[in-house]
Write a structure and sequence with these properties.
mainly beta; 8 strands; 14% helix; globular
Length: 170
């Protein structure tokens, strides 16, 4: 019995993440979310922003560090409103071709949304998003994580999207 008491008294350093603090959803985008590339943004243009990240976290990486969840960020531009059929609901600046628009493609995604505040960050949400992938046994379609930032009153809301691989059922 003494052996077990000593083992129980040994201090173990464990890092806890509570993914239930985040409400991870399975989201179906029926149309692309369109973004005006940052190289073509006219002066004073504001609104929602999109950044594309790569992640180094996969099932082979059992103990990822925080900086591996969102790597190589590439700011893609500002959001453009579009209609349900995918057509633009905005007038593009002169000289902008619709083929130059960046997008979050239509499909099925794991999705999380949170307000920015002092103790929340997209890194924590990206970790919770990945833990949900493991829990639900979803296969990621690729290594891309999209960060969408939306003005909301006096604050900013961030959303993370990671595409779920579509599975074919016979």
């Amino acid at each position: 019995m003494r052996f077990f008491k000593k083992k129980l008294q040994k201090k173990i350093k464990i890092r806890y993440t509570f993914p239930m603090d985040y409400h991870i959803r399975r989201l179906s985008l029926f149309k692309d979310l369109l973004y005006l590339p940052s190289t073509t943004v006219p002066q004073g243009f504001t609104g929602e922003r999109m950044t594309q990240f790569h992640t180094q976290v996969d099932k082979k990486n059992l103990e990822p560090t925080a900086d591996q969840y969102l790597c190589e960020g590439n700011f893609c531009g500002y959001g453009l409103p579009s209609n349900t059929d995918g057509s633009l609901d905005a007038v593009l600046p002169a000289g902008i071709d619709t083929r130059s628009l960046k997008n979050i493609p239509a499909g099925t995604y794991a999705f999380v949304q949170r307000d920015y505040d002092s103790d929340e960050s997209p890194l924590k949400a990206a970790e919770a998003l990945w833990l949900e992938f493991l829990w639900e046994e979803w296969e990621p379609a690729d290594d891309i994580v999209y960060l969408r930032e939306l003005p909301h009153g006096n604050s900013t809301v961030f959303q993370l999207f990671r595409r779920i691989q579509e599975t074919c059922t016979p």
